[in-house]
UniProtKB/TrEMBL annotation:
It holds the Pfam family Glyoxalase. This is VOC family protein. It comes from Natronomonas aquatica. Residues 9-134, 157-280 form the VOC domain. The lineage of its organism: Archaea, Methanobacteriati, Methanobacteriota, Stenosarchaea group, Halobacteria. SUPFAM superfamilies: Glyoxalase/Bleomycin resistance protein/Dihydroxybiphenyl dioxygenase (SSF54593). It comes from the Archaea.
Amino acid sequence: MTTPPPTPGIHHVTCVTNDPQGNLEFWIETLGLRLVKRSINQDDPGTYHFFFGDAEGTPGTSMTFFPWEDLSRGSVGSGQVARTAFRVPEGSLGYWEERFDRYGVEYGERIERFGETVLPFEDPGGLPVELVEVELPEDDPTVPWTAFVPETAAIRGFHSVTLWLGDPGPTEDLLGTMGFEEHGTEGVAEDVPGEERTRFAAGGPVGKYVDVLPAVEAGRQGSGTVHHVAFRTPTDADQDAMREAVRSMGLRPTEQIDRHWFRSVYFREFAGVLFELATNGPGYASDEPPEDLGGRLVLPGEFEEQREQIENALPDVTIPRAESARAETDD
């Protein structure tokens, strides 16, 4: 098997929720991420697909959601991405605790993990999320969006995802093939399964970590769960090489699928987690000016011909605007 170019890390994470308006308000106004694309689920065009990221939608920063209305709450278990963590600047967790108190967000006690401080919380749909304080390098590629949250605290892309797996071994081998190297192990808190957390690290600056924990209790897809995690294969050639490497391990990757803002390959890894390989381009600014990202409903490809029908089927939503919270950025 030819070794493919290693992935730099996470490209995006796609989740499931049940309240489109509440999802927009929390991820834009409370967490301060930018709505970089407002579109539809290309496999279910009667459902929105929201993309939240940094100011420019940099690869490695976008959290995306399928908001199916009235969807029941899911449960996190084996064979799932159990936690999604974001980077925030060192010293900013105090700001976030005060902000969560002001907005009524329930959060947990701070956790020390691999020498970093972690603040766990849930979004309104029940999704487990974490903020991790990190020292940002001077050449960090992310661009903070400061409409609602000051630059000193703004979320700066992904830190990691945590996988709960019934049998971690084959998946750990897969991560090695993808370019992740074992970073270390440590014990786990009482509220998570297993006795040991193993961390794997990619070479990029954003979304570089995957944590693996053994877990046997099954989860259930629903609101508050992750649909899939996408890893960066920056070019088509990188993606093709990774696809062949994955296939040679006995997995069944799809053919490349054009997702308009990137090109994708999907497969379920050995424990059942849905993985995606995603190219860097064309990017979210390929069909909207950078200053207008998320400003309109974008219907890729042939869906534009069905705009009236699609718009009539989608629920009305209001996008939070920065002017309503301008004063908070001066705190």
